[in-house]
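Q: Hi! Curious about what Peripherin-2 looks like structurally. Here's the sequence.
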Amino acid sequence: MPFMPVKFNLQKRVKLAQGLWMLYWFSVIAGILIFSLGIFFKIELRKRSEMMDNNESHLVPNLLILVGLLACGLNAFGGKVCHDSLDPIKFSKWKPMLKTYLLLCCGFNVLLVLVSLLCFLMQFSVYLTLAEGLSYAIRFYKDTDTPGRCFMKRTLDMTQIEFHCCGNNNFRDWFEVQWISNRYLDMSNDVVKDRVLSNVEGKYLMDSVPFSCCNPGSPRPCIQHHLTNNSAHYDYDHRTEELNIWTRGCLEALFSYYSSLMSSIGVFVLFAIILESVDMAGLKYLSTALETMAEPENPECESEGWLLEKGVKETFSDLLTKLKTLGRTNQVEGGDAPEANT
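A: Let's find out. The predicted structure is below.
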């Protein structure tokens, strides 16, 4: 007995074909959006590649671009089939391809599920890449005259301004690195010389942050130097006063941005999976309803459509039997090959 059978007359078949045609073109639009999101995500990764030490993975955006293109092609074909389905002559040329097409759609849905899962699972990889890349970026901030790092300062400054963040985990990360190049330090100055000599690694460390850490919304002029020295500023206590620099770390800010972007894309891909599944179910009903017409020459006659020709249990049993038969055939062919060689 067929699974979920439905009776159809001419009016129902026409409505189903028209509704499916619209759904397929909605799916084409969804495919275009997925393709566009893949391009946008790839650009966003490229834009901050230096913040990730050029180790970012482009697997997810590349897959999004691929599935977006596939969705456009597959759903445009499905829309054409639905458009021609009520014309027996036109539909006859598509009929032999429908089984293969539905199998391709099943495989495509599996690919969509994989892409959606990767959008959520790869967020941890992005976090680790950002954590490592930002620490390198802060360390090489001063190397504006070193080939390959010339734009590190500009990129990091623009990131801190755009994302309202400072440092890797917080602004104190800047206290642990020398972020001013030696070419801008007056080594004849005793204060500078003493500070460099007092450090084991010979670095010029300060309790200061770059200008890009300043919060322009603060009513007080930015205090970016001597942040922990209360006596260096009037009416100032770094332990109690709200600092007029960004206190949020760039790791948290960037990861929040990328994770929300990836989660939103993952949810949209899930929506596309539901849309594709509805399209497949509708096309199966339409094709079976057209095949089971008692009088194909009479469009007014009734017919029956279904999702599966047999019940779910019987369908799975048949599938397992086919797989076992295929496995045995391969084993026999593999066993006969050596004999043929002898």
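A: A fun detail: The first helix runs from residue 10 to 47.
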